[in-house]
Amino acid sequence: MSDPQQVETVEADVVVIGAGVAGLSAATRLVEAGHDVVVLEARERVGGRLWTDTIDGAMLELGGQWVSPDQDALLETLETLGLETFSRYRDGDSVYVDESGERIRFTGEQLPVAEATVAEMERLTVLLDELVAEIGADAPWAHPKARELDTVSFSRWLEQQSDDEVARRHISLFIGEAMLTKPAHAFSALQAVLMAASAGSFSNLVDSEFILDKRVVGGLQMVPLTLAANLGDRVRTGTPVRRLEHSDAGVVVTSDRVVVRARRAIVAMPPNLFGRIDYQPPLPRRQHQLHQHLSLGLVIKVHAVYETPFWRADGLSGTAFSPYRLVHEAYDNTNHEDARGTLVGFVSDEHADGVFALPAEERKARILADLAEYYGPEAANPVVYYESDWGTEEWTRGAYGASYDLGGLSRYGADQRTPVGPIHWACSDFAGLGFQHVDGGIRSGWAAAADVAAALASTSAGVGS
């Protein structure tokens, strides 16, 4: 830490801890309402789990990147900030590799599996869509079926619904490896319903045409970068918060470079990091337990850049999928108006564990072998190769977001945003719609800002009466 004698002390109405989209969206709303706000960020950059960087001359979106048509909060923010989007390339055939290793080209969203399996996947999709419509995203813990669905793993629940192992494997992968980045035995059926409800339906979640619709010109990190630029010197980076003292009078937040005295605080970080702050007095037992039942998943986001998008000349869209390969899905991720071609692929949960145990060059060779199986031998020789590993990122420690262990969502979900005195919480991990997505982070930030503004107004009214 810095020399305490050199640490600056400032006063504000609100201190926001974390400069991801949740924290910056909250700060923006509060400033617009006329409040004095300070934002403290541990990293030397803003954006949290959004990070666009240049690696070996290639612009890569190392974190979140896609925009889907139902993400109203994100779309509103993009319009307000004047940021442009472009459509993901998707013309041509997709590729599927089956259990025997056969490579199959296909079009549309329906995977080329046996007709009986197709029918069973459609039946399971309808069943999940019905549960989503019945339970919703805002308060799944309040539904009469919440405990029943939350105390059975998603894999076990699928076994109770279907005897078709191939159908179960595909359905579980859409939510497990692809979204929560955990194996389906590690999270509940209720958590799976929330993940599907966050996109409006399970049908939306599994439709790559929908969920991976557009990208932002310049990268999705342009959202927090622009929000932070508009906030100006209210945002302070490179200053991890170490201590948060709280009382009825407000908060005193001590970071490495500044001490902030404020009336309210918003903690806007991934919940697995909440415990890195020394709260005085300590948080209530309920909050301690809640935070301990949340964990992030694990995924390697693989970026491979080529001199040209060669797969397009072969009539391929760049979309590839297989529950039997190390890289379970991959897409054309070429940047806006870039002559070079970029592929992005994903290696999740236990598969990531396995290859992280290998030397880096062997891991790269195995991953590129899968890309070559999808796209042909040219895919084995990118000019730029990079692996986003958020599990080792000091101020994230996982991907893409936090989810509860079995029974945790129904047990603690109702209290996850409950303020502790003057302390409020904001993160995409606590969102309903947009859960684990940028859209949810923005919604969570807006909700926290509204709660804080109401609390400040109530306090001011009390003082004046």
TrEMBL record:
Residues 21-452 form the Amine oxidase domain. Keywords: Oxidoreductase. It holds the Pfam family Amino_oxidase. Its cofactor is FAD. GO terms for molecular function: oxidoreductase activity. It comes from the Bacteria. SUPFAM superfamilies: FAD-linked reductases, C-terminal domain, FAD/NAD(P)-binding domain. FAD binds at residues 41-42. Substrate binds at residues 241, 346. Belongs to the flavin monoamine oxidase family. This is Putrescine oxidase. It comes from Agrococcus jejuensis. The lineage of its organism: Bacteria, Bacillati, Actinomycetota, Actinomycetes, Micrococcales.
